[in-house]
Amino acid sequence: MKTRLGPRYFVVAGMARKNFKEADKWLHISAREYYNALDKLNPPLYRKLTQSKLSEKALYQLLHIPTAPMLGYFHPVVGVTKSGEALQTAKSLRQFLQKLNGSTVMVKPLEGFGGTGVLALAIRSDGEELQLQSVGEQQLYSAEQLISAYQRNGMQPEFMLEAYIQQSAQFASFNPSSLNTLRLWVLETAPDQAEVIGGYLRIGRAGKVIDNASAGGIMCPVNLVTGELQPGLIKKTPHRDDICQHPDHGAPLAGVVLEQWLQIKQFAEKVLLTLPHTRFAGLDITMTEQGPLLIESNVAPDKDGAAHGNIPSIKLQFAARKLCAK
């Protein structure tokens, strides 16, 4: 009655468990309070900036935020490669991909969520015939079929091509086929000061390329002090699971301490302070052997993430009130 949290949220957050501290139950706010605070922290007029992957990628590269390099943008009228060549026809796409023979590239729609439409394509060419094989599903594409896959009704086909990320050995050990990412909630608590207030590691299923919860991925909350993974859960179940090992191949999850955890937190806080007109974000970050990389930023992350990661969403309300008091 006081928090306006429904029974589903109560159960997913694990609040019914005996080891859930009573005081922690009051650190979660209702959906209405959450989105009211969000409107004050992140002006709605600027949210579209990072919702289009094209403008988002351009923003990261301009601000020198480490991210996967963009290779090209396919569009029948204005498509272009990173070197300025036209990328507007099946022929130009075929020629461009042949230059990347032997590598793997990521193909993404410009807008979307939950990993829908994201492909990892292994490129093989003998100089004449081009073969594009999706990693995981092992489906074959021609250049024409790839273009057709990204054509919406009544709209021109378009998609982005970016470099495939080689994640660190530790992140790959959780599930080798998927890019496993941390979803970190980062909040500006004072001018030029940011804080990671919660987060969880998202781990894909065997044979899958994406780690999204909507695709059956596992979410393991992270201890913010130590970087230790807590028992995980799956979004599709109506309760909080206690997943300690990967259900498909037994890789250890709960109890594993993330390497360079302090560096990851500092990276996330720096990214938030760099993004324009953004005081709060759910940042998707992976780890490589060279350091952390930003995959994307969500300026209006799903509030259920607070239940999944036991994140004190009330901190958003405090920050919004402080902002309005100035």
Describe the structure.
It is globular and about 65 Å long. Helix content is 26%, strand content 23%. With 326 residues, the chain is of the alpha+beta class. 36% of the residues are buried. It has helices at residues 7-12, 31-41, 44-47, 53-62, 90-98, 143-149, 169-174, 261-274, 304-308, 314-325; strands at residues 70-74, 80-81, 104-108, 119-125, 130-134, 140-141, 159-163, 181-190, 193-203, 218-221, 233-234, 280-288, 291-298. The protein contains ten helices and 13 strands. Strand 12 and strand 13 (291-298) form a beta hairpin. The strands form two sheets. The protein has a seven-stranded antiparallel β-sheet with strand order 2-1-7-3-4-5-6, sandwiched between helices.
What is shown here, in short?
With 326 residues, the chain is an alpha+beta fold. The chain has ten helices and 13 strands.
Question: What order do the helices and strands come in, and which of them pair?
Answer:
Blueprint: H1 7-12, H2 31-41, H3 44-47, H4 53-62, E1 70-74, E2 80-81, H5 90-98, E3 104-108, E4 119-125, E5 130-134, E6 140-141, H6 143-149, E7 159-163, H7 169-174, E8 181-190, E9 193-203, E10 218-221, E11 233-234, H8 261-274, E12 280-288, E13 291-298, H9 304-308, H10 314-325
Antiparallel strand pairs: 1-2, 1-7, 3-4, 3-7, 4-5, 5-6, 8-9, 8-12, 9-10, 10-11, 12-13
* Main sheet characteristics: 7 strands, antiparallel
Q: Quickly count the helices.
A: 10
Per the principal axes of the C-alpha atoms, what is the gross shape?
globular
Spatial ordering of strands, largest sheet: 2-1-7-3-4-5-6
- Give the quaternary arrangement of the chains: single chain
Q: What integer is the average pLDDT?
A: 91
The helix/strand class is alpha+beta
Tell me the radius of gyration.
21 Å
Percent of residues in beta strands: 15-25%
